[in-house]
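Posted in: Structural Biology > Protein-Ligand Complexes

Title: Requesting predicted complex, zinc ion in pocket

I'd be grateful if someone could produce the 3D structure tokens for the following input. Sequence and ligand are given below.
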Amino acid sequence: MNEWASKIRAGDARALARAATGIENRDPLALETLEQLRPFAGNARIVGITGAPGSGKSTLVDALALTLRRRGKTVGIIAIDPTSRVSGGAVLGDRIRMQRHHADPGVFIRSMATRGSLGGLARATADLALLMDAAGRDYVVIETVGVGQDEIEIAGLAQITVVVLVPGMGDGVQSLKAGIMEIADVFVVNKADLPDANAVERDIALMLDLAEGQGSRPPVIRAVATEGTGIAELLEAVSGPVSLPRQSRLYSGELKLKAEIGIIGGSGLYSMPGFEAQEEVSIETPFGRPSENFVVGKLCGRQVAFLARHGQGHRLSPSELNFRANIYGMKSLGVERIISLSAVGSLKEKHRPLDFVIPDQFFDRTRGRASTFFGEGLVAHIAFADPVCPEVAGVVEEACRAAGVNVTRGGTYLCMEGPAFSTKAESEVYRSWGMDIIGMTNLQEAKLAREAEICYATVAMVTDYDCWHPDHDAVSVEQIVSNLLKNAANACKVVAEAVTRLPAARACKCGSALAHAIITDRSAVPEATRRKLGILIEKYLV
Ligand SMILES: [Zn+2]
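-- Reply #1 --
Done. Output follows.
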């Protein structure tokens, strides 16, 4: 960790302020510092507060901050008002706030009135929220004006979104865009001492009735922020558990603070003992939809994202998988390491059913699968001689031993197209080539993870011998199912052990795989490609 990051972790408010400014300006050192802090994020409660101008949001946020401080909690506030570029309203508001909290290092305030030239407002906001989270703030409050698409996206960064309304604002509920109403987890009727407060509450109820059947009904809290009324109730509402399954409105690439470790495997892993605070995250990527919603939560104290490779109910065949969307989705969640769990057939006598193999090589026998993010005007050649991250593979090997699983480190995973299994002739040829195990999915994952600068290691779980083996035909379906179930149970143990053991920071080279890979002249990269690849390449193209 660099000195800057260490200071921020130690609670140095000035270092934090400098980093916030650096991140807004996309200063490389500040962004690097943010990267180093990323593993420490994921503990803050991120609250979005939105509402039309004049609804008293700032006062409400201030009152919330004061209440939190009284309870010993630290707060980061990001106040966004892109409409005030001309009037300078946010700057003025910021001064008033600064005066109120100025002697208190427990409240860190940052206001943003401009869109920034690179990456946009939502991007900068996500980075700032991540910074405050990693700096150890208990609550990060993002305050926006509910008037535009940017603000809807920003509100989508939050785990809980509060929509503030006030009496006497003309169209009342209609004055806010429909999109804003849909993202509300909590409604606040502020200035509830005004005569029309009941009418506002009635409007909200009516609107919620119309939207009935779309999940749990958000609470409506009456508040008078200037007097501190209703603030305790608001705090309770934003501190409660995030409902499950919750369709998070994360816009891919805009939020990177959700998970540090990714697990690709079966959906059975979600119910693993100790996997807590689960949240279902729907991500749309520039490469399309991933196999399934990601399930993000805490496992053994770490933020982990699970993806069911073949979708819930095993709907997708290996040839149908959108590997790019799966890996891009992981990247956009902030994942730095992927542990992949896969059932495989054995091509060697020594890899017996129920053994786990951690291959260090892949061999491609697939056809025509999309296996790169690059193209469309941006050529990049990554090194792939050693396709597996040695650090993660080492940790996974230890984890297998700790879980009591018979494990072999090293070997070659032959990736076939499928979906039909091999012929005997093919199986024998693969054996003559010295291949160890055979599966249908991991090569593309490994390659794309490398392009995305994510560490990748496979835990290959041997289900049976491939068809070359004399016992192959004698194996009953019951036996195979029984092996699959035993392997799945062992997989849970291995994942828990591995997640516990993975060091917070990476010591391998995977995180800079693209450093010398991009061949195309930076100035020749088409804007559309730049935008499409976004988070994958931005640190090299700024
Ligand atoms: Zn690595």
